[in-house]
Structures are given as C-alpha cells and as structure tokens.
Specification:
Radius of gyration: 24 Å
Largest sheet: 7 strands, mixed
Helix content: 40-55%
Shape: globular
Number of domains: 2
Number of strands: 11
Distance between the termini: 20 Å
Order of helices and strands: HHHEHHEEHEEHEHEEEHHHHHEHHEHH
Structural class: alpha/beta
Oligomer: single chain
Length: 411
C-alpha cells in the first residue's frame, strides 16, 4: 500500500477535519494501519496491538480526526484516477471507446443493535444485517460502493452509483435481477446510460407495443403482451425532464426521489410516466438481448467480475469477513470504503508490477506473448498477498522491493 501511495499520492486525501492555522501532521504508518484496521475488519485497538512500532493512542488519533467518509472516497477516487490514466487496463475493454460497468450487493451481518440494519432469517438467522453494494468496471476498477439496508431493493441505488463518480464514465451498466426495474430502464436512458441487466426468466417478461396487436402480428415469433400508455408520457414529459435536471447536478440522489415517489398511497403520476418510458426501453433491450450473443456474453462476463469482487471483499476482511462491527451507517461506509481502498491498492500494484515487467522486455515477440497472457487473466488477484501475520510499518519494511517508481519519476 505504501508503494502504491507513493505512485498515486492517495494518503494526501486524509486531511484533518478541523483545519487550523497550526498544521496538523500524522505519520504515514498510522494512516496505513488505520486503513488496514478498518478495511480488514480487525479493529483499531487490535490493529495497534498486533502492529510493531505503533501505539494505540497514535492510531486512534489518526482514525478519529482524519478518517471521514469524504476523505476515504477522495482517496479511492484518486487511486481510480491514477489507474484510469494507465494504458494496461485498457487491455480489458471489450470495445474501444466504450466502458462496461456492473454492480452487485452482498449481505453482511451487523454485530449489535443498529437502526440501519434489518432482520432477515434467510441471510442472518436471528441476527440483522446490511448490504454492501459495489460498482466495478471491466478494467476491474472499483469506483464506488455504499452500504444500504438489507431490506431495500438494490435497483433504487443503481443510478446513485452511476452519477456519483467523476472519473469512471459508464456507457453500459449491468446488474442482476435485483438491480432491475422498468423505472431504472427509463431513468438510465434519459441520463445517457445504456442499461443491460441479466433478468431471470427473460422469456416470461412482459413486452410492450405502441399500438394494439391485430391479426398482422399473430405470426410474430416474439409477440408483445401489452400496449404502452403513450398519452401519459406526452402529458408528463416536461415533469420528466425536470426530474432528470434535478438528478444531473448531483444535488439530490435518485434513491431519495424514488423513496419520496413511493411514499404516496397511489403511484405518483411522475413515477407512472417514468415506468411507461422504461417499458419501451425494456422491450427493445429484450429483443436485442435475445438476438445478440455477444451482448449476453459481455453481460455475463461483467457480472462475473463483480462476483469476484465480492469474494475479494471477504478475502480482505480477514478479521470479520461476514459482518460489520460498526452499527452506525457512516461508520459502516467508512469501513467499506477502507476495504475498497485496500482492494484498489492491490489491483493498482498488480498493474504497476505488470507494466514494470513489460518495460524489461526488449523483444517484440516476448512482449506480445506477455500481453496475451495478461489479457487472458484477471488483474483482480490476491494470492500473492499475505493477509495474515504481524503488521510491520517500519521504514525498512515499507520500502519497495520490485522497482516500482513514483508517478513523477516514472513519467
């Protein structure tokens, strides 16, 4: 992590929350230990006990004053931006100039009573828990994550993640069935995203047509079931554009707007309009999904990456791989953000190491062979990382051993 920080300068994002005229300094080992203590589920106090040359008071001071949610997200964005500027990650793009992303959630039990957590016998037995919702692109850049209640459907938060990040610009986004609704189809289309979920039982999904079916359509192999309420879209089109204009500046989140629209006893007219528009986009997507084999393969491949990211999360959280010890929502998101920062650091180190190996090769044939091997494997691998044992943050151990240069020197 120290090697990656010297290349990406991510620790500079951990600013003191109370800026004064006197500069507040904190040691690099304390910040690294805090990230690992929270991200690995070990805990701050236990991390201080198992770390050499680290006191508990120093570590708690760093975490209390510098580990805000904004700082954690800024550090992740800075690392994602550094990887976005590399050339090697583009090797994993399915199409040049187009970026395919995906999102998925996984359930975590919460230790202790929490207002944010909900009970679910299916996932937590007699306990309660939350869902960590992660976003990833096809280059394995983990560009956003959030913690939501386990009772909430994930689809309400898909737009939040797509609009949140300023570094990764998604062109096509995939989810599983839990991340799909007709409303998301409509809103994603208006916001400029192509929504391509993997829907369970897609052959049984309702398909829509602008005009009623007649005898001329009886020989269709894929026939529509219902008609679209086009008049509703025409009548409320201006309100629909105002809704999009509200979400675009990122002052309000789509999940908050959906929560408000769903609070009425009957479906709000704006919600019905958005749903009617989504029925058009969904029907077109179903036809394309059935006809296009490459699209189905691309969606499946991207969702496999987000499933691998979920395994990566549990591998990093060696202390409590299936639960959060924090009970407050913001504390849970800070811990999830630290976990994501560790994962991004490992992925970034893998990219830096592979670029270093490519620079050593002088023969074009050997370089092409290595590039072919890199393209056939995932950069999201952690078998070479020792997650357990004593944590030594001395200068001798933090020293880079493979020759990865800082960003300015490398340039």
């Amino acid at each position: 992590m120290d090697t990656v920080d010297r290349h990406c300068n991510t620790l500079s994002a951990f600013e003191h929350w109370k800026q004064t005229h006197t500069p507040q300094t904190v040691s690099r080992p304390a910040l690294l230990a805090g990230i690992m203590g929270l991200g690995c589920g070990i805990g701050v106090r236990k991390m201080a006990r198992i770390s050499s040359r680290m006191t508990e008071s120093e570590l708690e001071h760093a975490v209390n004053w510098r580990f805000s949610l904004d700082n954690i997200r800024a550090a992740n964005d800075q690392m994602v931006k550094a990887m976005d500027q590399m050339t090697l990650p583009n090797l994993y793009r399915h199409e040049a100039g187009q970026l395919h992303t995906a999102s998925d959630g996984q359930k975590f039990e919460v230790r202790g009573e929490s207002l944010h957590a909900t009970r679910s016998y299916k996932y937590f037995g007699q306990g309660q828990g939350v869902s960590a919702y992660t976003f990833i692109d096809e280059r394995c850049l983990l560009w956003h994550s959030l913690v939501i209640s386990a009772a909430n459907r994930e689809s309400a938060y898909v737009i939040d993640g797509l609009m949140r990040n300023d570094v990764v610009k998604s062109d096509i986004h995939s989810t599983d069935t839990h991340g799909y609704t007709e409303v998301i189809f409509g809103l994603a289309h208006l916001l400029g995203f192509s929504f391509a979920p993997r829907i369970k039982g897609i052959g049984k999904q309702t398909r829509y047509l602008f005009r009623p079916r007649n005898r001329a359509h009886s020989d269709w192999k894929i026939a529509p079931h219902k008609t679209i309420n086009a008049n509703l879209i025409r009548e409320n089109w201006d309100d629909l554009l105002r809704l999009v204009a509200t979400i675009k500046p990122k002052e309000n989140t789509a999940s908050d707007i959906f929560r408000r629209l769903n609070s009425y006893s009957r479906q709000h007219a704006l919600y019905q309009t958005l749903k009617a528009l989504g029925q058009i986009i969904k029907s077109l997507f179903i036809l394309k999904y059935i006809d296009d084999v490459e699209l189905r393969q691309a969606i499946e491949k991207q969702l496999n990456k987000v499933e691998l990211a979920n395994r990566f999360t549990r591998a990093v959280a060696v202390g409590n791989p299936r639960e959060f010890v924090q009970t407050e929502k913001e504390e849970q998101e800070i811990a999830e953000g630290c976990n994501r920062l560790i994962k991004n650091s490992i992925i970034c180190w893998n990219y830096l190491y592979l670029e270093r190996q490519l620079e050593k090769l002088t023969e074009p044939e050997a370089k092409e062979n290595l590039l072919s091997m890199i393209a056939s494997h995932s950069p999201m691998t952690w078998a070479h990382i020792n997650m357990l044992g004593e944590y030594d943050f001395s200068e001798e151990k933090l020293k880079d051993s493979v020759g990865i240069l800082p960003l300015k020197s490398a340039a």
